[in-house]
Write a structure and sequence with these properties.
The chain is mostly helical. It contains 16 helices and three strands. About 35% of the residues are buried.
């Protein structure tokens, strides 16, 4: 049985990773930059798209304007993924170093090389599995989508104004954007971002594990088990492999699975923590786990005010968990919470502005 502190560390790193994914995959600036570039490219044209020569000219103008924008975002994402691989390797090291001595950190230059040169294991992916080209494929495909739209406008007897509306959407309302070409491009970027950062974590973590082969001899495939989990990840979850020999997430686009380190038996007795639950990794709810974490970790996960309420409001973890979502499964705001449980806010000494 593995010490619960190993799982605590892994869960905290996963929380950090998911937050990094959400930040990196934010597409508001991307959507704005694409819309501006498209408007600029089409400003030199007007009227019907009635000839192949005009359609080709528009297509070329769109490509010339959009390509540097999209490849700028792909380069930024590549740099971010390399940085995240190093950050995740260091996070794994700091976690282990907090309760064991003699732990070796991963070599940053090796992590930097490996994240770019070790291919991803995306089954059925038709493009490159190497990080840089994987990211660039999004930019190439996105440019092609926009170019194609100009040619589609020719066959449908559309005009330049219609073309701009099809690509950019008729307004900045989220639903309108979602149905436009720029919306498809944004969703593609989100998928590429999340998948790239999961790859970055896998590389960083395994490079750290390999620096400590006496301590960590096995890795365990761990899937996040919810209604979005793929069948392949569900099937692999819990499988144990010799270090570096098992399937390495991501195994599909948007994969959230990770590898857990399995300590050599001779080191387990050196870690004095209580076991939680009866399984290898423990059985407890998310908020029960969070309740055992230090205040700074709770602040990172919940935000300072909600974390203070969690710690000092007198609510058990299971009741607190039930008060986080409304009946439509939407997050309950702090103001709404105060109306529901004012006594908990008073006990925690929280005054909302």
């Amino acid at each position: 049985m593995q010490p619960s502190i190993i799982l605590d560390n892994a869960l905290m790193i996963q929380v950090m990773l998911e937050r990094l994914k959400s930040s990196t995959a934010d597409t508001r600036d991307l959507v704005l930059d694409i819309r501006v570039a498209v408007a600029s490219a089409l400003s030199a044209f007007s009227g019907d798209i009635s000839s192949i020569s005009k359609a080709k000219s528009i297509s070329l103008a769109l490509k010339k304007t959009l390509r540097p924008v999209l490849f700028g975002y792909s380069q930024k994402l590549l740099d971010e993924a390399i940085s995240v691989a190093i950050v995740m390797a260091d996070a794994e090291y700091r976690g282990f170093n907090s309760f064991l001595e003699g732990i070796k950190p991963a070599d940053h230059e090796k992590v930097r090389r490996d994240v770019q040169n070790i291919p991803m294991g995306l089954a059925g992916w038709s493009g490159s599995l190497f990080l840089a080209k994987f990211i660039e494929s999004w930019a190439d495909t996105s440019v092609q989508q926009v170019e194609n739209q100009a040619l589609i406008s020719l066959s449908s007897s559309g005009d330049v104004s219609d073309l701009q509306s099809t690509i950019n959407g008729t307004s900045v309302e989220p639903l309108i954007i979602a149905l436009s070409v720029v919306g498809r491009i944004a969703r593609g970027f989100q998928m590429i971002s999340r998948t790239s950062l999961q790859h970055a974590h896998s590389i960083g973590a395994v490079d750290f594990y390999k620096e400590n082969p006496d301590l960590i001899k096995y890795e365990e495939f761990s899937a996040i088990l919810d209604n979005k989990t793929s069948s392949v990840c569900r099937s692999l979850s819990g499988n144990r492999y010799p270090l570096g020999e098992g399937p390495k997430p991501p195994l599909h686009p948007n994969c959230r699975s990770r590898l857990l380190p399995v300590l050599d038996e001779k080191y387990i007795s050196l870690i004095t923590t209580d076991y939680v639950g009866n399984s290898e990794w423990g059985e407890e709810s998310y908020y029960e786990w969070l309740y055992r974490q230090p205040a700074n970790r709770q602040d990172i996960v919940l935000g300072k005010t909600r974390a203070q309420l969690f710690r000092d409001g007198g609510l058990p973890p299971d009741k607190f968990a039930k008060l986080q979502l409304d009946k439509y499964f939407k997050p309950i705001t702090l103001k709404e919470l105060k109306r529901i449980i004012p006594e908990a806010f008073n006990k925690a000494g929280i005054e909302l502005k």
